[in-house]
Amino acid sequence: MTERQTEGSGATVSVVQSAADQGNTVMEAKSRQFRVRETNPHTDPRWESFVMRHPAASIYHHPAWLAALEREYKQQSVCLICEDEGGELHGLFPLMYTRGLPLSKGRPLSGVRLSSLPRTPLAGPLTSDPHVTTLLLQEAVRRVSEQPNVRLQIKPQNRELGGLVDGVVEKPWRFTYLLRLHETPGEPLRFSNSKHRTRIKWSISRALANGLGARLAETEDDLKGWYSVYLESMRRNVVPARSYRFFRALWQSMGPKGLMRVWLVEHHTDAGTTIVGGHVYFRLGQTLSYAFNGARTSALPLRPNDILLWQAIHDAHQEGCRVVDLGEVPEGDESLAQYKAKWGAEPVRLYRYYYPGFPDAEHSSEGNDNNLAGMAKAVWRHLPLGVTSWIGDRIYSRL
Known about the structure:
Layout: E1 2-8, E2 11-17, H1 19-22, H2 26-31, E3 34-38, H3 45-53, H4 63-73, E4 77-84, E5 89-98, E6 112-116, E7 126-127, H5 130-145, E8 150-154, E9 169-180, H6 194-209, E10 212-216, H7 220-237, H8 244-253, E11 260-269, E12 272-284, E13 287-295, H9 304-318, E14 323-329, H10 334-342, E15 346-355, H11 377-380, H12 385-396
Helix pairs in contact: 4-8, 6-9, 7-8, 7-12
């Protein structure tokens, strides 16, 4: 076992490598000195530069997302980097402390967590090689180990963390649905499945015939209009809503950088034009991520979600995107899985990693951020929208 001295949080800490951890990177470790320490991603230009050029980076590694997450509940991120002796960045690891839910004792979301990242579908370390990943993971484990009753939670895009550090356990999570766009930009967007293609074409034609039209949000007033629709949709689905404060932070930090788009669908009638639906998307590199949606209950027969998703996918294809991430599906929600599959998206299993571990029986994708434990559906669906927003805000403040 070897020990390397490295800086962290203004103090000197040790990053330990076992012989197994070193693996095939031992020669590189001998020839290059690394150190792991904290940085501020909003003032350290290397962070954003690393994210923008890394092929596996997600929008949730970007400083603009971290800024919105910090502003949501005035939390400070713990942003680790691994750099060499010349100051070149080889990896980064965004984390944040969160209090956990008080009524789910013994479950993964109970108690204090150091998470990468809370209230975020994907994050985890982003590195240039497995050795750097190990160093960053070791530092996160060290910090958790020194704090009683704190659990480390990591939400990576793949299974690369398995076996790197003793005590870090892997747990299967939900499926996310990925639509891969293989055709040449500029050519018409086509779906290979003729049955799905026919259904989509019918839905879009019906939406247009019903007087629906899609456009991009341009002002914060548009965002406010969408938020009222979002609240109604969350109440109908019995899911806690994020605060408007959070979406305003996204609009301000991500919008100017072209990382966020809000597609609105409006209903045009003789009486005027009203917003009846909307989707929030994030864009980084060649990936478009579907993030939040809402639709008026009264407008659902008009097919607002279909015209919104079609417009977003069409534009992503024209702009050279290669992947549209349609997001997770809760276990057992077959209708949502079928809806996403209709667009040609394929399921990809996600995994969560924890330190310390816990029994498999305590880990379930149903005891998660999007469930409203203990609240009767019938009661929730009759609460005023302002009340559901207030309750949701307090739930998310602990997640």
